[in-house]
Amino acid sequence: MTLRETVLEGGSDDRPWLEIYADKIRDIAQNLAHRKRCVGLHLAYGADDETPAAKEAVRIFFLSLRDHLTAILARGLPSEIAEELATDALVRIEGATLMTAVFDESDAMERAIQAAILDATTASR
């Protein structure tokens, strides 16, 4: 799975940043829930110092994904908070992907989506 497959890029988006963020979180989560796995996370567990190219590719994938979310959040929040919220959102979504893959449970993913959006909404006040 590539970053392009995970984050559907559109053109210029003039909507409020929180609306864009909520849509991106939903897009990423739905993509992972549909696949019932995250290949990047799977590779992360297998990549180590003996496979430096794979380790770096996985690192770049997740860093790019976090940076993409951070950039959206930074439109309305301080950069440090934006990065923290982006990181937390990815952790939640990846954890929920585990529940989807193992138990075919979609409730955890919906809670992860709602929690990520609520965190951003709360931080913006």
Automatic annotation (TrEMBL):
Q: Name one Pfam family in it.
A: TetR_C_13_2
What is the top-level taxon of the source organism? Bacteria
Which controlled-vocabulary keywords does the entry list? Plasmid
* Segments forming domain Transcriptional regulator LmrA/YxaF-like C-terminal: 21-113
InterPro entries with a match to the protein in the record: Tet_transcr_reg_TetR-rel_C_sf (IPR036271), YxaF_TetR_C (IPR054156)
Could you identify this protein by its name? Transcriptional regulator LmrA/YxaF-like C-terminal domain-containing protein
